[in-house]
Structure prediction request, 162 residues.
Amino acid sequence: MARPREVDPWDPTPIYLQIAGFLREDIESGKLAPGAQLPSEKEIQQTYGVARETARAVVRKLRDEGRVVTLPGRGTFVPPG
Amino acid sequence: MARPREVDPWDPTPIYLQIAGFLREDIESGKLAPGAQLPSEKEIQQTYGVARETARAVVRKLRDEGRVVTLPGRGTFVPPG
DNA sequence: TTTCATTTGTTCGTATGTATT
DNA sequence: CAATACATACGAACAAATGAA
Prediction:
């Protein structure tokens, strides 16, 4: 496990957008390849030390961008090409 | 003011989707014409007796559908034709 | 089949910040 | 300045879907 990038509380960018940026990088770099599963909401909470609503906002943002798809009860994934 | 339609707690449909349905009807029927302002989050809360996040989810749903636009600090509106 | 753990969905509460009027 | 309105973020609880045991 790589050390997680950390949220910068001094950055005026909302926390959820900072984290969404981290995951967006992972998708674009291929570190999260098509078909890969994103960290769960709970993992996002624990990794970055944020509340669930913040974790959910992260995923919602990426979903709104069309970068990921969420399957209830299963998880959130990078869609296949 | 017409008496508000009421949320049916026995309907398995999520409350925020029920309320979004009410407002969607108002938009499609022309009761909320292009340019009209939607009820605020607080008004939705009070009218239907729901929490803020629920009221926000109502507006977000309609926004995601492209039926309304939100102007921060002003309100949510039915966009002009 | 039933049970259990995991994951997302929904709902409520509270607080603070920012922008507009 | 004050009122209004949306944005963000913390906490808490229960429901629903899924899959594995």
Q: What stands out?
A: The first helix of chain B runs from residue 15 to 29. The radius of gyration of chain B is 12 Å. Chain B touches chain A at residues 64 (CB under 8 Å). DSSP finds three helices and two strands in chain B.
